[in-house]
């Protein structure tokens, strides 16, 4: 009987080892694109296989292998363990091909091998996307947090993370998981504020068939995360009764499915997060103190982007490089003007908002250079409003006020015209020559 259901990779080769079909969950390990697989030889996929490799045996000699284990090496020299099963394909009595079902197994030393592919969870067997190295910073406070992560990751203590929306709470939680002894088990994440309490209770603790209409026997997230980490975002969104049930599960390390009389032991590390100050949440009654003290054995505060010094530009540079690679473009580094605009903005959405601004700019950029025309209008407007206010505060005479106002109007018209002197002059109702003179006067 073909034992294929537990494997994620499929490979079909002919007698010579030529790939007829290949579907790999871990394709990046091979250093190839999907279109480069079919027609290549298996000896080019794995650089160290011998002629007694199970798939070659099956295709050439008709020998099946139900449970094989071999070491395979990619083009960069990294060696991983491959397990699977392989079966010959016959034309009458003659073996002509083989079909292989397999998995690659990463150990702790190989996590960095797939670090550059962290955006794609298919390359991370524990359902994470981020590692400690994905926390980009030059700020001392964030560097200290990274050092703390290395220390606390080896503990089993519950953790509570507080930070504004977009500061990277799940990134930090995944970095902790991937530095811990639990890294080879699942990391499971749920946003507690994204669904009603009646649904989230069944998701967390599981359901029993017949416990309510349509209910089936189904494990909850606690059971699914057994041996690993459960990340609970917006923990304050849980209603009081559910917070009590969560507290019991955290203390007893047991869960009871809805409608079941039985409790099940689970080994789960809980990392919780909130985007509001937990002490204010407790004062307002939205977070039970008992739950807070149980979860905040280790407490972490993530500062907002506006308090992280030059990290705005550091992270912006990172995402310019990231999207260049992802979209196969060659956008130039950010100009000084764009950097001034970014530095003056307060980023209420933090790193997530900055990433979105860069990604949006890539969608509209022309001539391989991001300009103010590609930035979100609200960010540019806030910058210009701030600059006008500074000019007005610093103006000492009526002439100064007049000049600063004229400069602002001309600059706005030139921006709206897309850099066309002719269209800008038409918008302002003056000649192109006069506009050119005024722009020269103001150093544009």
Describe this protein's structure:
With 444 residues, the chain is an alpha/beta fold. 39% of the residues lie in helices and 17% in strands. It contains 17 helices and 12 strands. It has helices spanning 27-30, 42-45, 54-61, 140-152, 169-179, 197-205, 221-224, 240-252, 278-283, 289-295, 311-327, 336-344, 350-364, 377-394, 398-416, 421-428, 432-441, and strands at residues 9-14, 19-23, 65-73, 79-91, 94-105, 159-163, 187-191, 229-233, 254-255, 264-265, 269-274, 298-302. The strands form 3 sheets. It has a 5-stranded antiparallel β-sheet. A 5-stranded parallel β-sheet has the order 7-8-11-6-12. The chain has a two-stranded antiparallel sheet with strand order 9-10. The longest helix is centred in the last third of the chain and has 19 residues, at 398-416. The chain is flat, with a radius of gyration of 29 Å.
